[in-house]
Prior knowledge:
By secondary structure, the protein is α+β, with helices and mostly antiparallel strands. It folds into two domains: 11-86 and 236-371, Arc Repressor Mutant, subunit A (Orthogonal Bundle); 109-219, no CATH class. Helices cover 44% and strands 13% of the residues. The chain has 16 helices and eleven strands. It has a five-stranded mixed β-sheet. Strand 5 and strand 6 form a beta hairpin. Helix 5 (100-107) runs antiparallel to helix 6. It is elongated.
Amino acid sequence: xxxxxxxxxxxxxxxxxxxxxxxxxxxxxxxxxxxxxxxxxxxxxxxxxxxxxxxxxxxxxxxxxxxxxxxxxxxxxxxxxxxxxxxxxxxxxxxxxxxxxxxxxxxxxxxxxxxxxxxxxxxxxxxxxxxxxxxxxxxxxxxxxxxxxxxxxxxxxxxxxxxxxxxxxxxxxxxxxxxxxxxxxxxxxxxxxxxxxxxxxxxxxxxxxxxxxxxxxxxxxxxxxxxxxxxxxxxxxxxxxxxxxxxxxxxxxxxxxxxxxxxxxxxxxxxxxxxxxxxxxxxxxxxxxxxxxxxxxxxxxxxxxxxxxxxxxxxxxxxxxxxxxxxxxxxxxxxxxxxxxxxxxxxxxxxxxxxxxxxxxxxxxxxxxxxxxxxxxxxxxxx
Length: 383
């Protein structure tokens, strides 16, 4: 049963050893993982189901997942694809505009110094518990990054991808900036791939992860293409399976409080043919009905945690004809009534509202509840 949810990008969880801060990563940062899986013939929905995670987990770009879970997803993707450098390759195929408001703000900068200042100041828009720093000497810039707390993750899937995305910011100038990339671990096997991605000037066993380059480069202007506002980008007809699945989730969010959305109505809202929408969702590995159920599953817990609406109002806001249908669905998802869940939430401090075991997900294909790993939590709050 869901114990509690947080409306923040981070949460705290009491343990016998003291209070632990749970850091999270924005789902927008996972879109390259989905593209990599599809490239290897793995449907993202099937991949997530193998991890006992809801198939729509990576479709709501503004949602947050726990950092520990995010590394588990990357490590499993590396195992499934046989690509040891999955973290780096996903970032290689990514673009800053894929990284939601953080990337969008960087692309609007006028020069490199403004872009790096923006990246440091707004990093919490895409991930929490990751610190960026800029140190200036007379002739050099040291751009460093460090995760708070213990990671327990392979540096190839955690540290190096951050170095690569920061190097991509330098590349926005269109100039070849001579950069030394320092990494805080021993030189791995097959380091030639690291050199291809991060450049030939690699140093290992450094005190911290950082990029070092000439200070004069800060004055270089950015040569970026015009940035399409997120609202305008969302209004464009989707063209790929990933875009279509994400767009369906956005339409569900917009329509569900006013009408019970049907597949035909959603396809019409997206300005695409119903069969086209269904075909693209099949490539993702999910059906419209699964997306609708997954959205209701998650949003129901959000509404209960907020405490703003009664059970009947929540039922209508989720597109149910009455509270009885909603109660039956909620009991199927979480193993208890929404009323009981709300009672328990009321006795939980707001700052401690995170998902703790035994949280459950609902598998529409088998109509049964399955236990989620205790690291799973979900929040749709904006920074």
